[in-house]
Write a structure and sequence with these properties.
Elements: H1 15-34, H2 39-51, H3 53-56, H4 62-78, H5 83-110, H6 126-134, H7 137-157, H8 159-186, H9 188-223
């Protein structure tokens, strides 16, 4: 999540290393966000179970449609904030991600996989899945506290950093959602076991990302 112009950068000095770091951050956060239990994931799994993976797979592209307006809105707001305010948001984002990690860990401990109600198949489209995601608070929180500040920071350092972050995030998001759809449709029992493993992995990824986010924000505030 940004350094002011003329401010001291807190990223590695080697351009190639910085681009790789932003790419990895985007991939890690996308994976953790994609497997988090919520309305959108439950909707995709229910459709995969009832309609099959072939008809449901295009819905993995829904975040590419629904996140656009959310991202633009959040970036417009964040671009008018001062550097200390942005660094404060980075700290808040770190805490938010750590809370998500704790919830994911609790889900992993007490659940053997999400039980999803199987409904009658109806005609669904990528647009309908995008609407479900748009009404989900997750994208708004993610873009205001995590992705937005990180994207502004990376872009001000170098546009290639921002591009790497976005490419890693949405590439991993679509691939992970597609994998969940296929696994859920393949076999319900097998899908529950895989789902539990994915939630456990997301807890680890979120904890690491949250610690970095919080540490980076605090360090930038102290150095500023």
């Amino acid at each position: 999540m940004p350094s002011a112009r003329g401010g001291r950068a807190d990223s590695p000095s080697t351009p190639g290393f910085a681009v790789a770091a932003y790419l990895i951050f985007g991939c890690a956060y996308a994976f953790a966000a994609a497997v988090q239990p919520g309305p959108f994931l439950a909707y995709l799994i229910s459709q995969a179970l009832s309609a099959g993976w072939r008809r449901t797979l295009p819905m993995a592209l829904a975040p590419l449609l629904s996140d656009g307006p959310v991202a633009v809105l959040m970036l417009l707001v964040l671009s008018h904030l001062s550097r200390p305010s942005l660094e404060g948001l980075r700290c808040a984002g770190g805490v938010f991600v750590l809370v998500l990690a704790a919830r994911a860990f609790e889900t992993w401990r007490h659940s053997k996989g999400a039980e999803v109600e199987i409904r009658e198949t109806t005609r669904r489209s990528v647009l309908s899945a995008a609407v479900v995601n748009l009404l989900n608070p997750g994208p708004y929180l993610g873009w205001s506290l995590v992705m937005g500040p990180l994207l502004l920071k990376g872009w001000r350092e170098s546009p290639s950093n921002g591009i790497a972050l976005i490419a890693g995030f949405y590439g991993t998001m679509v691939l992970t959602l597609g994998a969940i759809i296929v696994l859920s449709a393949a076999a319900r029992r097998f899908g529950r076991r895989v789902g539990r493993a994915l939630v456990g992995a997301s807890a680890v990824a979120l904890a690491l990302f949250g610690c970095y986010q919080l540490w980076s924000g605090v360090r930038a505030l102290l150095s500023g």
